Amino acid sequence: MQLGAFSVSLSVKDLAVSKAFYEKLGFEVFGGDQEKHYLIMKNGDTLIGLFQGMFEQNILTFNPGWDANAQTVSDFDDVRAIQKALKTKGLELVQEADENTRGPASIVLVDPDGNTILIDQHI
Asked: What is the pLDDT of residue 55?
């Protein structure tokens, strides 16, 4: 199962303070919009999303169909196929994708320790 590009989505208290902190660690703004309260920071192939006031806890994020540069890859597992495989393995999903659709969709599950996992396909 190919889950796609990986990033950590962090719930931050102050976007500007967090941005400055991660810049000191060598991260640069890769995407997002500070006025909309989120930034995507990148250091090499490592991605961190900074989100102020959008969700309560940190989220592990996978993007099927994207590489670490948010570029489309030709060979990837559609989120609906991933959903089917996870359900076959007995995993419970908190949010499911409509299996009768194509293109962008997402699913959400929670690991045994309460960590949210978002599998978010943009293409």
From this structure: 94
Q: Rounded to a whole number, what is the distance in angstroms from the first to the last CA of the chain?
A: 17
One-letter-per-residue 3-state SS of 100-116 = CCCCCEEEEEECCCCCE
Long-range pairs for 68-74 at CB < 8 Å and ≥24 separation?
68/5, 68/42, 70/5, 70/30, 70/31, 72/123, 73/4
CA-based torsion, 84, 85, 90, 93: positive or negative:
negative
- In the numeric block, which tokens belong to residue 9? 């989505």
pLDDT on residue 29: 98
Q: Which residues of the chain carry a pLDDT beneath 70?
A: none
Q: Which helix (H) or strand (E) holds 55?
A: none
Supply 86's token pair.
């996870």
**Amino acid at the residue 32:** G
DSSP states of 72-97: B-SS---HHHHHHHHHHTTPPEEE--
